[in-house]
Amino acid sequence: MLDLAIVESLEETSKKVNSYIDNCEYFNSFALPEITDGLKAYFTRGGKRIRPALALWACGAVGGDIDKVIPAASGLEACHTWTLIHDDIIDNDDTRRGDDSMHIIGEKFAKSNFYTSSFENKSFGETYSILIGDMLHGISVSMILDSVKVGVSPEIAIEICKLLESNIALSLIEGELLDVKFEYMKLEDINTDLILSMIIGKTAVLIKYAATIGAMIGLNTTDINDKRILALGNFALNIGIAFQLQDDILGLIADEKELGKPVGSDILEGKKTLTAFYALEKFTEEEKTKFLTIFGNSNASPEDVKIAVKMIIDAKALDRTRDMAEDLVKVALKKLSIIEDSKYKELLISFANYMIERKY
Amino acid sequence: MLDLAIVESLEETSKKVNSYIDNCEYFNSFALPEITDGLKAYFTRGGKRIRPALALWACGAVGGDIDKVIPAASGLEACHTWTLIHDDIIDNDDTRRGDDSMHIIGEKFAKSNFYTSSFENKSFGETYSILIGDMLHGISVSMILDSVKVGVSPEIAIEICKLLESNIALSLIEGELLDVKFEYMKLEDINTDLILSMIIGKTAVLIKYAATIGAMIGLNTTDINDKRILALGNFALNIGIAFQLQDDILGLIADEKELGKPVGSDILEGKKTLTAFYALEKFTEEEKTKFLTIFGNSNASPEDVKIAVKMIIDAKALDRTRDMAEDLVKVALKKLSIIEDSKYKELLISFANYMIERKY
Predict the structure, then answer these.
(1) Chain B partners of A90 at a C-beta cutoff of 8 Å?
(2) Long-range residue pairs from B89-96, CB within 8 A, at least 24 positions apart, any chain
(3) How many CA atoms lie within 13 A of A133 on its CB side?
(4) Partner residue facing A35 (CB), from B31, B83, B174
């Protein structure tokens, strides 16, 4: 699905970022070896490094030297990673990228090193993952500030670090808190505006940030109101939202083997997606009642799930989400009109289309 | 116990730092009002602001303008605060400075806003305090970098931020992890060297950092090997350790009313203090067995606790700890010999003596 140029560019970015992270001195200064193991664990499991790639492409698209973005792009990936570590505790997710999540790593460490109860091992696992996340947060900040070592001005390094720590990360965490609150709130108190705020905070702002800092470093300016920086940032914001919408669509109708998780699990979990709420808006009271016997009911049968998906499709909610994702990509591509043609601009355009064309 | 000059200077520092934090824009950008409430909660409860004060005094002691330290000192206090928030989850401490700790604030928020079970409210409380701590971490970084707004050079702002995020905070968190591990480890695997490492990491390095950044800003240099910066940093490191040792001593023999918590609670909790382990080193096998029926036994009677304290005193472990604390303060004061006389140097000297003279 991804065209060859993107695949190659993503691989190239991954190599550079992985190598920077591998060689980063900050991971190796601990008396307790389980700290270094934890800090490196998520990075060694692949991941497409989409955010770092966007930062590099945005820099290239404004004519900058992409190698100057490597420390900041690595710090951005480290930021994404520490938020995943803490989210995994909060969401009680026991796996991440096909292996143990951080609190499970900690729990297993306790099990094999101490002689305590399973309750205590679990508690140690949570402690461990809170602290590993906190450490990686600190390392992420330092990586970004290390941009000065590759020729980024101290003023720009400070601006991109502050933009992350006092703005982007706060939105991201607020998005996570809102997502958690959805599980506690009454269904009638949740609406599509709130869900969109959650998606923007939890997913899209960090993607916007990636393109923004790439452009700032590329243009060698702290002026975030520069029109090319705004254009690339808003391009990324829009495709970030589209990315999440496509995720929701695939969660309902993808090929299960390609997706790598059971199709319809969002229905069983009662995940507050825009698509589900578009459907709820359209349902009659009777349909709503029927839908809610399945939505969020972990005991619902596969046949029930199929019925719920069909109800969503019949209510045109899937079409509405798909239209919205397509519109977002169109808006995103328009933003690029002020950017000169280059191979990097081509990569950004292909990537934007991939957001809604991908099948997994 | 604190002399008048210190009391006045601490009050003055508190006012400046509290005012800086109160007016900080980063606390007010949230759609969810419970975030602002949480971020500000611990700051509104007093606290002596010892760390910011040390930063200001160190700056003054090298002839610098102490007002240039306010943003960094506020960021340092915010760093101390976010680590307390996460420690309170980890240590299951339900109060902080006489009021609810952050996870209890979150739990109560859930209780009054959602209609969920007490288990779910508790879980929301943990989520809330993980995320509030993470946000305050980001804000702390931004406050430090905002030093440039009061005339600190970007190079120095970057150095003091990196020093915190890739060094000091990592030691601090490693100290916390080690402290948690003590609860899981066999007693015979713990020794006084390990306990000292824990104290240095968990308490002393952040106090060292306070003096170090004050001196760096005061001297307008990024050279952390400058002899005055090293002197002030090591002064603070030594009094930081002494501070913790005095805490342990007071935990055994203070006046209960002055201390504000039950004397001997460290014995009931089996807290791994240097003093307890000095005693264990001296005990005969018989004494050790007797001591361990009380140490860490939450059901032990007040009489038992008195017996354990007497055993520690008889083993000269309290004297040994007190001697060590006094030696540390002497070493600390010697470090100041290369610093010119000033009212700030006087404050530092008085403060060092206070570390071991304080009764609560």
Answers:
(1) 126-127, 130-131
(2) B89/A130, B89/B126, B89/B129, B89/B130, B89/B133, B90/A126, B90/A127, B90/A130, B90/A131, B90/B176, B90/B180, B91/B180, B96/B42, B96/B45
(3) 31
(4) B174
The stretches in chain A having pLDDT less than 70 are: 1, 259-260
Bridge partners of A100?
A: A95
CA distance B271 to A185: 41
**Tokens 């720590």 belong to residue:** A165
H or E, element range at A95: strand A95-96
CA distance A176 to chain B (A): 8
Partners of residue A205 in chain B, C-beta under 8 Å: none
Residue B343 CA, distance from chain mean position: 25
Nearest to B130 among A86, A110, A135 (CB): A86
Alpha-carbon distance of A206 to A188, in angstroms, equals 29
- What distance in Å separates the CA atoms of residue A110 and residue A133, rounded to the nearest whole number? 18
Query: Nearest residue on chain B to A144, judged by CA atoms?
Result: B162
Query: Tens of pLDDT along A79-130?
Result: 999 999 999 999 999 999 889 999 999 999 999 999 789 999 999 999 999 9
Distances (CA, A) of A6 to A221, A240, B201: 27, 17, 45
Residue type at B80? H
Sign of the CA dihedral with A5 first, then A51, A175, and A127 last:
positive
Option in B30, B139, B186 nearest A174 (CB) = B30
**B286 CB contacts (<8 Å, ≥6 apart)?**
none
> Does residue B222 sit in helix, strand or coil?
coil
In this structure, how many other beta carbons lie within 10 angstroms of the beta carbon of residue B18?
18
Using one digit for the tens of pLDDT, what is the confidence trace for B285-298? Answer: 999 999 999 999 99
**Chain centre to alpha carbon of residue A144:** 19
Which residues of chain B does A173 touch, with a Cβ-Cβ cutoff of 8 Å? 131, 134-135, 138
Q: Strands, E, within B242-296: which ranges?
A: none
> Nearest-CA residue of chain A relative to B161?
A142
Rounded Cα gap, residues A26 and A39, in angstroms: 10
